[in-house]
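Weekly modeling sync, notes
Attendees: S.R. (lead), two postdocs, one rotation student

Agenda item 3: backlog of single-chain predictions. S.R. asked that every request posted to the team notebook include the full sequence so nobody has to chase files. The rotation student volunteered to paste the first one in as an example of the format we agreed on. Action items at the bottom.

Example entry:
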Amino acid sequence: MPPSSSTRLSLPHYFARLIPALLIAVLQGAALPGTATAGILPDAEAWERWRPASETRQIELDHSEWATLLDRYLQTETETGINLFDYKAVTASDRALLDRYIARLAGTAVDTLTRSQQQAFWINLYNALTVRLIPDNPGV
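Predicted structure, as returned to the notebook:
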């Protein structure tokens, strides 16, 4: 049975628009009002650390734990057409599953992944960390 609408959480529209704009500004080196960008952007040596990718698939990433969580908590048939994740319904055992998934990804040698594997890796890791963060920080 789907959770009631009162237990579904969604980012406000202004917040959803603000994050990409800030990310682009920081990555392009634009200063935010009252701040300096010195020290924000990695130096050239740090960029080189993340650039390498394998030409051939050396390992197979398993995202089944993440898929299980999405199957349980992602609401795709909403009135607005926006997918919602039911953060409040996540059980302690599923938080432990999420923690294991994140820890396993954290131990992955990213340079052994192909470019397409790296893309899936970073997108899934970002989303998993976000799902892990929000229940502990309501209103984010």
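Discussion: group reviewed the output briefly. The chain has a mean pLDDT of 75.
Action items: rotation student to repeat for the remaining queue; S.R. to check formatting next week.
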